[in-house]
Design goal:
The chain is α+β, with helices and mostly antiparallel strands. The chain has 2 domains: 145 residues, no CATH class; 177 residues. The chain has 10 helices and 10 strands. It has a 5-stranded antiparallel beta sheet with strand order 3-4-5-7-6, with helices on one face. Strands 8-9-10 form a 3-stranded antiparallel beta sheet. α1 runs antiparallel to α8, α5 packs across α6 and α7 packs across α10.
């Protein structure tokens, strides 16, 4: 594995959801009629910075709303939560209250993070309200289809609502948890290799350590690890192939270092093949959904012509496969990646 400082020069533009993708989302029950929109949440007057328990700026802000707007928003957000968690059954929010709303102007989709609490037992949950972005939605769908993870989200015109993904942020894990004596370092390295492989195939970019989380599950004799992406803003937009490989980001160096210390070329290849085999099984079981998602991309703008050209040339050179030169869209490149995976795995 290699590492270098891969730079993403500017924020990706928001791409509106096209007719084909909207039809796909309705077909697969990702669409819901929501009482408030993302843009309703922008009606705040000012914000207050959110500081963590150590006194550091979190890059989140607390928006301040007039009381009459706040009451409407809180009622609407509880209904949105019911749509996200229980197909609209509002009985689940009878004893819940909106504890706070936080806003991040730093992210591409400028998300709102909502904390909702059960007032009977103080158990809380989070969900996110974002501006709908077509390429981000494709990233969520590819995560659902190609990865071992399930994603829960709903869409309504210009609004995207996402379930909170639980886990320890990758940068925090590498700094304070990775060297835990109870953790098998080889298992962590193995998971990073598999995660790197999934991102490269699905063209999920910008997986710096703070854009994924580590999930830890105690097993009967050890701990199991899984890395999950939490940021899909850079789904197949950039033209540099290295953007889609977490190993090339300096923020991921602790994971790369772990792989170099505990794995050799043969074991890296073995884990890559294991992940490719798992992807083939998922593709075969979800082949109709993949076809529908591919059809939904026709006519949908997802990147620039220059980025598409650079990426297909980069992949053609990297894998020595001339078929990449014939790819006309980002989804063509993903499709060819998946076909190459199928060809490379003998099942």
């Amino acid at each position: 594995m290699k590492i270098e400082d891969v730079i993403i020069s500017r924020k990706k533009p928001i791409y509106p959801v096209g007719v084909g993708l909207a039809k796909y989302l309705k077909m697969y029950q990702r669409e819901a009629k929501l009482p408030i929109s993302y843009f309703d949440l922008l009606n705040f007057q000012e914000t207050v910075p959110v500081i963590d328990k150590f006194g550091n700026d979190t890059y989140w802000e607390t928006p301040l709303y007039p009381p009459y707007i706040q009451d409407q928003l809180y009622d609407g957000l509880k209904i949105i939560y019911a749509n996200l968690k229980a197909s609209g059954n509002t009985r689940i929010v009878q004893h819940k209250i909106i504890d706070r709303i936080e806003y991040c102007a730093f992210g591409n989709t400028r998300p709102f993070r909502i904390r909702i609490i059960n007032r009977l037992n103080d158990v809380y949950d989070y969900f996110y309200v974002k501006q709908a972005d077509a390429s981000r939605i494709y990233g969520l769908e590819l995560e659902e289809i190609l990865s071992p993870n399930q994603v829960n989200y709903i869409y309504d015109f210009e609004t995207l609502v996402e379930e909170h993904i639980v886990g320890i942020p990758g940068d925090i894990f590498s700094k304070s948890r990775m060297n835990n004596a109870d953790y098998n370092q080889t298992r962590i390295a193995k998971e990073f290799v598999k995660f790197n492989e999934r991102c490269s195939i699905a063209l999920l970019g910008d997986m710096r350590a703070y854009n994924f989380v580590m999930q830890i599950t105690p097993d009967f004799d050890d701990f199991q690890f899984r890395i999950r992406a939490i940021d899909f803003d850079q789904q197949f937009y950039e033209g540099n192939p290295k953007v889609y490989m977490p190993q090339f980001f300096k923020e991921c160096f602790p994971y790369v270092k772990l792989c170099m210390e505990h794995l050799n070329d043969k074991t890296v290849l073995q884990y890559q093949q294991e992940e490719r085999s798992s992807i083939v099984h998922r593709v075969r079981s979800e082949r109709h959904r993949i076809k529908d998602l591919r059809d939904a991309s026709i006519g949908q703008e997802l990147s620039t012509a220059e980025n598409i050209r650079k990426l297909r040339e980069g992949y053609a050179e990297m894998y020595k496969i001339d078929q990449y030169y014939r790819c006309k869209t980002m989804t063509d490149i993903v499709e060819l990646n998946v076909k190459n995976v199928i060809r490379s795995v003998k099942i």
